[in-house]
Amino acid sequence: MRLRHIEIFHAVYLHGTVSAAARALNISQPAVTKTLKHAEQLLGFPLFDRRGGRLVPTDDAHTLFIEVADVQQRVSSLRQVTRNLRNGSGTLRVSVLPSLALDILPRAVSLFSEKYPDVYFDLQTLHHEEIARSLYEREADIVVAYKAPPGLPVISNWLGEGELGLLYRREDLPDLPERVSLKQVCNERFISLAESGPIGDLLRRELGRSGVELNEVVSARTFYIGSALVRKGIGMAVLDNFTAQATVDDTLVFSPLQPTLAFDVFAITLESRPFSHVAQEFLNIFRTCIDEA
Question: Fewest Cβ atoms closer than 10 Å to its Cβ: which of 27, 31, 56, 94?
Answer without folding.
Answer: 56
